[in-house]
Design goal:
Blueprint: E1 15-20, H1 30-38, H2 45-56, H3 64-81, E2 88-92, H4 99-108, E3 113-118, H5 125-141, E4 154-157, H6 165-184, E5 193-199, H7 203-208, H8 216-235, E6 240-246, H9 261-270, E7 275-279, H10 288-304, E8 308-311, H11 319-336
The structure holds coproporphyrin III (HT9) and fe (ii) ion (FE2).
Residues 21, 23, 34, 37-38, 41, 43, 47, 51, 62, 64, 119-120, 124, 126-127, 199, 201, 247, 249-250, 287-289 line the site of coproporphyrin III (HT9).
């Protein structure tokens, strides 16, 4: 029986683009980084100063870049282990190595078709479309985006993976470790509430995320239910859980997803809650939102309220997550080759689209962005 040579498993791709947000490496980087992030977004100066202080509190260095390097190394090791010969190129939307640097590196490698893996598991403007737009805009600035959407290096994208078994299992493992840590801290795990935490987004962005098959918050609620159930099954007791949000910005007049994690802890403590495990399922690694908004601010709130609280880990480079990402890459390659593939999921939502719909995940409901986006049908002939 003929077998596919292992190095052909990733065909038609000749590179993987690990595509992330980026963050500052030192104090002098903070202001230019924030300018990159917020260009044209209407974030008040007061919020920017506040966020700048969060970074300066850590010497101006976000943990995100080192974590992406670790993920890149873990992906390379997993690919090598499976005999898949595919370079992994790292690029960021908002800091070095920029998208433009990554495209140059892909060209230097002779790549003609790359597949993008974004470091955001959920679908919304911030977690999906904005990455696709930045790719298109970067290629356009380089004079490499044709009227018909053709590009010198062609890009596809791996689907939003919040409901992929690897991401979910890695979160289950992290939450189980969190419950063990709570017990070690003298807390009472059987009475604890599991508070899942994710990045808040404006209500308008939430509404516009509907086109991607379920809204941003619905994606979180679905996967949270699965994680809580699996954790409960292993621990042998029911797990009470809730979803809370962090890192709100924008003007106060603009509604964003709530409850804020600090408000939720305050309210539940008033109702008698004593023990809490916070699980940042909205983030794939411990970047600044986790280091500041959870480990610093929410932990301080919990301490003031007299709660016994622990923060569970993020998926980071946990083995089920990394193996799952490589499974997703092979799945995407098979789809690109036109083969029938089973797209594994857990929970009640379908696998999200590998090729985004026209106007998928706009910034505001009903308002086309006017910005081209790759990896969707928008520009495809
Ligand atoms: C959904 C989502 C994710 C998760 C998906 C993903 O991972 O992509 C995410 C990730 C991140 N957000 C980050 C940093 C920032 N986000 C900001 C602003 C905003 N984020 C938003 C949403 C999200 N953001 C939104 C709706 C805004 C308002 C402006 C806008 O409408 O776009 C601002 C401006 C100041 C402020 O407003 O806080 C900063 C500095 C970092 C880097 C952290 C580090 O350095 O370690 C990371 C990974
Ligand atoms: Fe953000």
């Amino acid at each position: 029986m003929p077998t596919t040579p292992r190095s052909d498993l990733a065909s038609p791709y000749d590179a993987l683009l690990l595509y992330s947000f980026g963050g500052p490496n030192k104090a002098e980087d903070v202001v230019p980084f924030l300018r990159n992030v917020t260009a044209g977004k209407g974030i008040p100066d007061s919020r920017l100063e506040e966020v700048g202080e969060h970074y300066y509190g850590f010497g101006g260095k976000s943990p995100i870049n080192e974590q992406n390097l670790a993920l890149q190394a873990a992906l390379e090791a997993e690919l090598a282990e499976r005999g898949i010969d595919l370079p992994v190129v790292w690029g960021n939307r908002n800091w070095e190595p920029y998208t433009d640097d990554a495209v140059t590196e892909l060209e230097n490698l002779g790549a003609e078709r790359a597949v993008a893996l974004v470091t955001s598991a959920y679908s919304s403007y911030s977690g999906c479309r904005q990455y696709r737009e930045d790719l298109a805009v970067t290629l356009d600035k380089r004079g490499q985006l044709g009227e018909d959407g053709s590009t010198t290096v062609e890009f596809d994208k791996i689907r939003s993976y919040f409901n992929h078994p690897g991401f979910v299992q890695a979160n289950v493992d992290a939450v189980l470790d969190g419950f063990a840590a709570l017990e070690a801290k003298g807390g009472s795990p059987a009475d604890a509430t599991l508070v899942f935490v994710t990045h808040s987004i404006p209500d308008t962005m939430e509404a516009a995320s509907r086109i991607s098959q379920a809204t941003y918050s619905e994606q979180h609620l679905d996967v949270a239910a699965v994680i809580a159930e699996r954790v409960g099954a292993v621990r042998g007791h029911e797990v009470t859980w809730e979803l809370a949000y962090c890192s709100r910005s924008g003007p106060p007049s603009q509604p964003w997803l709530e409850p804020d994690v600090n408000d939720l802890l305050t309210e539940r403590a008033g109702e008698g809650l004593r023990d809490v495990v916070m699980a940042p399922i909205g983030f794939v690694s411990d970047h600044m939102e986790v280091a500041y908004d959870l480990d610093t601010e929410a932990m301080e709130t919990a301490t003031e309220l007299g709660l016994t609280a622990v923060r569970a880990g993020t998926v980071g480079t946990r083995a089920p997550f990394v193996a799952g990402l490589v499974d997703l890459l092979l799945e995407r390659a098979a789809i690109a080759r036109g083969e029938a593939v089973e797209e594994a999921t857990v929970g009640s939502l379908p696998p999200f689209r590998s090729v985004c719909e026209v106007d998928c995940c706009l910034r505001r409901d009903g308002e086309p962005s006017g910005v081209p986006a790759l990896c969707g049908v928008d520009l495809r002939r």
